[in-house]
Write a structure and sequence with these properties.
four-stranded antiparallel sheet, single chain, globular, mainly beta
Length: 368
């Protein structure tokens, strides 16, 4: 009996059953790979921390000039941004991240800052043509247009005090004015503070009793609206503070400046430090353009992190307790002018002189 030789190789057209390769889990990313699934390259497991469709989402196409301010609404479902192209864009935070509104007839000059109402569907804006404007976002109609100051209005903030929404505006004319918000707010200010120096930033205290004012004299002035007078000032900056932001617990004040140094002040009634400086942070260069960079506190973890954009086209995020830089986030092609944190999730929103915004998912913080 003859010995059978080896089987010939299969000819074309013969079906051969092969083992099915394992599918890549949805929480893994193939950094590099060939067409052959057996030759997968570097695989990195990514733990998702938010409800965004992707860890990074670009919001572009609405503005033809630099974006000067951007903010989440109090629910975190919507985003508003204002630009030097004199328009305000409205976006959905989550998929499909639609640009569902563009308000382009509010003013005839760049819109420099905006705020969502805390109690209604109203958006407040301030602009370089000295106007404070209120818009009803359910109808798109302008409710109020007030010539609030004699010069450019740089900054705007709002708060609730005794059931009334109050607005504070700061201008190059060296004054801060207090207004009643809402649909029934009048066209006349309820208080005026003369800072005697151009105002770059305003921020309310947690109880709405004080307003913090950053000015060109490198100081932060603290005014009591009940006494109608300045009660103290915060020193330490060697150059003009560009923005002010209060921590979620109301105890600390974030203040970037043109010197590229970001200070965190302790604004509790009794501070352990005579200067009230809690932290001095470095890492976000302000550049030479004198842009009013707007910083923010994280909210999902009770304010354990702060963020400021920079002229190096990145966003710097620090841990407040240690002062350590946690992230340097790239992605923009111009100075990052404004940042905001989502009110409930570890999501950061950034805006830039390149006319775009980016939603970025970061590591979840430890709740308080």
């Amino acid at each position: 009996m003859s010995k059978r030789g080896p089987s010939p190789p299969p000819s074309e057209g013969v079906l051969i059953k092969r083992a099915k390769p394992d599918a890549t889990p949805s929480n893994q990313i193939a950094i590099s790979s060939s067409n052959d699934p057996r030759n997968k390259g570097l695989i990195r497991s990514v733990q998702r921390t938010s409800s965004l469709e992707a860890p990074i989402v670009s919001l572009a196409g609405a503005h033809s000039a630099e974006i000067l301010s951007c903010r989440f609404d109090p629910t975190g479902q919507n985003i508003a941004a204002c630009s030097a192209d004199r328009s305000v864009s409205l976006w959905r935070t989550y998929h499909p991240n639609t640009n569902y509104g563009l308000l382009s007839n509010l003013t005839k000059a760049p819109i420099l800052d905006l705020q969502w109402s805390l109690t209604s569907s109203i958006l407040y804006t301030v602009s370089a043509d000295h106007l404070l404007t209120s818009v009803d976002l359910t109808t798109g109609q302008r409710l109020r247009k007030i010539r609030a100051h004699r010069e450019i209005i740089n900054t705007l903030d709002r708060t609730m005090a005794a059931g009334t929404e109050l607005l504070a505006t700061g201008s190059d004319d060296g004054t801060v004015k207090i207004w009643e918000g809402g649909e029934d707010g009048g066209k006349h200010s309820v208080a005026t503070f003369d800072i005697k120096s151009p105002v770059t930033s305003v921020c309310w205290s947690a109880d709405g009793a004080n307003v913090y004012v950053g000015a060109l004299d490198n100081e932060i002035h603290v005014y009591d609206i009940r006494k109608n007078e300045e009660v103290y000032s915060l020193k330490g900056h060697s150059d003009t503070p560009t923005s002010l932001s209060l921590s979620p617990n109301g105890s600390f004040l974030l203040s970037p400046s043109f010197s590229s140094q970001t200070l965190i002040y302790d604004v509790r009634p009794f501070s352990p430090s005579p200067t009230r400086i809690h932290r001095a942070l470095q890492g976000a260069p302000a550049g030479f353009e004198n842009t009013l960079l707007r910083g923010a506190w994280s909210k999902d973890d009770g304010g354990r992190r702060v963020a400021v954009g920079g002229a190096d086209r990145t966003v710097t995020i620090w841990e407040v307790e240690s002062g350590k830089i946690l992230y340097k986030l790239p992605g923009h092609k111009g100075t990052v002018t404004a940042v905001d944190f989502h009110p409930r999730e570890p999501i950061i929103l950034t805006a830039s002189k390149d006319g775009t915004m980016i939603l970025g998912e970061i590591e979840a913080g430890l709740g308080v």
